[in-house]
């Protein structure tokens, strides 16, 4: 079985308790981070790894959102949330971030929040994000990643095997470097929780 399929199955199983599992972090910090990140989304938006739809309440009212995820279980939760919020400007699709089924230069904004720590081949996924973004469009990355501090990395390395086994997530990816590697021009980096959680805005 391919890596992506294995990871998707982990998320299908985990989807039942995912929101409960993350709720302490969501209440303390993540919801505030999401609100800040998504306030700058414009036009036609692609959200890669929409998960259970935690970002949906925070999008500006005038955007059109397509949210994709590789897990049916997570998408079912997101669809329930979309209906509860009464959002008619949101469409949810089952899709692999590493193989996006969209034409080049389709979206004004591409969003990912806590996603590229889990995509099995993050560079491949980022190349796809770059491909479908319009020239001059913006990408909004809210991601956790390896710190520049060796001390801060100690707990991340300790958590890494547990998170990989649970949902296929790596705590120590160098996501900012990967973003630059595929050709994005970084406009802004804001450290939200030391430099472990960063808000990165980049353009094509």
TrEMBL record:
* Coiled-coil intervals: none
> Domain Methyltransferase type, which positions?
46-141
**SUPFAM superfamilies according to UniProt:** S-adenosyl-L-methionine-dependent methyltransferases (SSF53335)
Mind telling me which CDD domains this protein's record contains?
A: AdoMet_MTases
What InterPro entries does the database record attribute to this sequence?
A: Methyltransf_11, SAM-dependent_MTases_sf, Thiol_S-MT
Alphabetically, which GO biological process terms does the record hold? methylation
Keyword terms of this UniProt record: Methyltransferase, Transferase, Ubiquinone
GO MF entry, a single one? S-adenosylmethionine-dependent methyltransferase activity
For this entry, the protein name equals Ubiquinone/menaquinone biosynthesis methyltransferase (UbiE)
- Native species: Thermococcus onnurineus (strain NA1)
